[in-house]
Amino acid sequence: RETQPPAALPTGTSFVSQITVGLATATAGARINYTLDGSMPQPSLPLVYTDSITMYSTTVLKAVASTTGYLRSRILTETYTRTPFPSRLQILDVNGNPFPNRTVTDAVGGLRVLLNTSQGGLGGVTVVIRSRRGADVENPVLINTTFDNQTHDYWNNLVLRAGAPTVRAGNDTLETPLPDTLVAVWRNPLDTNEVVADTLFVAPGFSVSNVFFSNSLGGSKVDSFPAGTTTVYVVDSTRSLTGFVYRVAVSSSIGGSDLETYVLNEVRPGVFSVAVPVQPGGVKVSGNGTLQVSAAGDQLLATFIHPVYGDTSYGVAGYNQAPQRIALLRFLDTLGVPLAPSSFYSPANGRIRIRYEDDWTPGIDPQVHQKSLRLVLNAMRGGQRFAVDSEVAILSYVQASGAWEGTTPLRDRSLRVLNDTVESQFRGELQGFVASHNNAGAADGNTETAGLLIAYPDQSADVTLTDTRGNSVGRLTDSITFSLKDQAFTLLPGAPVSVRLSCQNSGDIEDPIWLPGDGLGNYVLPIPVRKEEGAAAAGDGRLQCLASDVILVDYTDPVYGTKANASATWGSPGFVKIRFASEVDTSTIVSISDTVPRFLAMVETPSPDRNKIDTFWVRLTTAQGELDSVPAVETGANSGVFKAFIPFQFTLAAPVPGDRNIEGQLNVTATTTSVPLTGMVRRGVDSGQAVITLFAQFNPPRLGYVQDRNGDGRADWVSLSFAKPLTRGLAVLDSVYWNSEIPANRRSAIADIASGGAGVTLDVSSAPFPKYLTGLPRIGKPPVAKLPFDAYFRGVPVLLADSVGPVPQVAIKHPSDLTTYLVGDEVRYQPDTLVISVSEPLMLQNWNGVFRFRGGVNCEDPSAHLQTQPVMGFGEPRSTDGMNFVVPLDNRPGAGAPQIGDCIFLENDGRFTDTSGNLPSILGAVLVGTGSEKAIRGMLGYPPVSGINPGDRAYQLANNSDPSSRGRLQQDAGGRLKWIPPVESGQDNGAGYVPMPDGISAVEVFATERFTARVHIFDQLGNPVKAWTEKFGYNGEFSNANRRSQNGARAYLQWDQRDSKGQLVGTGVYVWKVIFTLDDGRTEILMTRTGLIRR
Hints:
By secondary structure, the protein is mainly beta. It is 0% helix and 46% strand. The chain has 9 domains: 76 residues, Immunoglobulin-like, CATH 2.60.40; 116 residues, Immunoglobulin-like, CATH 2.60.40; 119 residues, Immunoglobulin-like; 132 residues, Immunoglobulin-like (Sandwich); 109 residues, Immunoglobulin-like (Sandwich); 89 residues, no CATH class; 99 residues, no CATH class; 122 residues, no CATH class; and more. The strands form 15 sheets. Strands 28, 29, 30, 31, 32, 33, 34, 35 and 36 form a 9-stranded mixed β-sheet that branches. Strands 45, 46, 47, 48, 49, 50, 51, 52 and 53 form a 9-stranded mixed β-sheet that branches. The protein is elongated and about 175 Å long. The relative contact order is 0.05.
């Protein structure tokens, strides 16, 4: 009967993130073994199904069921294909919202990295975030996670310090210059083809605060107010920054001074306020929380110093006993927040709001429900107005508020009302004018104005100095290229800007140097450089520097007045820069896993020789003793870029310096080994240095096989399969044991380790393992490979399945027992025995024809098995355990039995397998033994025991099966038996002779060597009767053809039927015990019986 095959639920299908599969069989009590790598499952494999299986990647599942008394089942094969959603990596604010325009300013102190992926089975997620312009590289672990049944979200928040003066990598704080770009990258460790990234621009914050007084919670500005309480508002361009306290100082100055400081409350992002109690009269006392003012009127000043940037902003208001008419025109942003006068407002907002407030009493509708607003936009260049755009906007009255509001669209970086448009490359000054009215609604002749700067926030210009190929400046540079990146709206397209260029030591100054622009804020110009050519000539448009000098460039924005500068060292040989990079895309890396075969060292320095490919040497060192140098070859003549390929691996032994292969020594007591590697390039007095971390992470094995590598039928190789693919390098092996007694057995001596694909093979053929050991030994414990320690410092064992067939291990030929036993009335020669041990049990109970043999061949030669013959013997092989066999061996001359030195093989016709289903090996074992044969091949007694029957008195001594051996014994005159030759030439040579007389008993002996026989006669009770000694073969008996037989030469021992005292013995059965002593001292003992009857 066959075990029912396993069934999978669900069956093979596709999945997004992960899938859980259950296995079952209809055969009760059956065990299910399975594999997940497409290999064939075996009942002896260690992967036994006990619970549902979770898969995270495309997997081929194969399973087999088996149980006692049944044949194994057919193989189940199911394929589960992962069809993932694309992963996405984002850099967001700390609340998980996108940054506007993918830009963050230095006013923001943190950010969030969020990974959304459908990849399941990720033990942890680590991303790499690097500063493109700076040196900061962070590897944050995304420790927070959520799962929606399809995708996972992993995220973590990091501190951002833009514009930080120092950089410390690896502290989970992003420290960047300004401006800069952050690049975040994640590579899927379970699908290395999937790489996702995101970028974020880091720009300087534009912190301009507007401070004003208000007598209402709505935040409307007042120029004066009566006694009571006023509210101070601070409108800032940044939100409240965590860890900072925003304060405002308020003072009165007429009739004495009172200074009070208040903590501001953030009422909405970027808008802060505090209520200030105002008390007229009395003595002014600072610091009591109440602002005291002069009763006749006072002047108030509010001072706000930004706690982060240090910018100072002011607001003023007057105190009056009687209320004053209020009329105010202001610009607001799209949320209704007042904009500070002369602050910048970006056209990217799309529109701007305008508010006019008058002193109409709330609740009384004004007679005039609309006001016309004249807006004037002055486009500026170089501080001079070059265009005017005059427009009219209509403001509508806001019911019962005393205020009129309207909006004007801003598009294409310009103010567009009707169809008039101003060029987009500008810094615009926007002014509004509106006529005010008195309480009666009549115009009072006053005009309210408000001003605003329309521009994108100011950013510092970026200046760089390179040679004409974009490489760094050095003494061999003939011409320097200045590259300037400034605000795109500074000037009209094509308009140049000027820079100041100088050599610090030579004193040469070139000012101005005009740089042409492309209209997008990019300005580039090559400048020739003279070296040590006499005195410097300022203003000649060409730099002249000393042999060791510093080139300086200074730039002042013609509109905003912001400054930028850059410098470059001028000398020989120039700077040396080194970084470590990925071989795939030459991107900078700070760490590398041992799954990558090599990486790069990229060196940048001016070419030493023109029109020639140069080479520098990169010196590599570790604290473990590694010391090597690798050549960095220039990528092209005069390129100044050099590339070195660095192969590396982890080893169990200490690194070998000088072999141009970087090694890290594994720490087998830890799951992860990290080795910092320092690279240095020297050029004269200049040098460059970089550091990279080499790391290896423990990869536990899933299963393993015992194999036969060299084809000799013996287990000498172990193949291991691991949880994650091994693309290269070393499997960290600690020990291999040949049963599960860890750590009782000895540690393995590993001769070789090689890897490839998803497995690693380990050569364990050397001591201490038995060379023939395969499969399940008699102790019932399979072999186990123990690899290094896990996170809990425990050994990680993996069971090793048997894939090597049985092979004859030992074959020994044993002589028969020294004492033989009677067969009927005669002694038969007891056969030799052939004892054979195989390496593991054979799965069959009928052992007929299991062994073959051949002489004169090499047992290790597979072809020797092809010309063998079955083992000859008196009986078939016998065994109780299927491993140890006893074969009765007919060792008579010409019987065709195997001899010492022959090879014993197992039959390989498919009838026999081991417990794992493996066929026997076709190799054999050499038959060994003492080499000696039995000299006494048999002994027959006359008269036999049957001779005691009445009437059976005459005994013819003949072998009825062999007529040529017929002959007689004759008693001569002296009473001795004499051998009578057989009938010859037709003559009756037996005439005149009589049969053996009744008074003589004899035994016929078949011998192959001469002997001395000591004969002992015993009665049936074991009492000694008589003993004597005879010799045979010393008188040429072996050369007598008439004595020859297939069992050896015939010899006869006679007894006169008398005891040791000469008395005739009576009727009965008598036992002969004959001790044969051979010439070499060997002794053989045979026993037989003869019968005697007295009449």
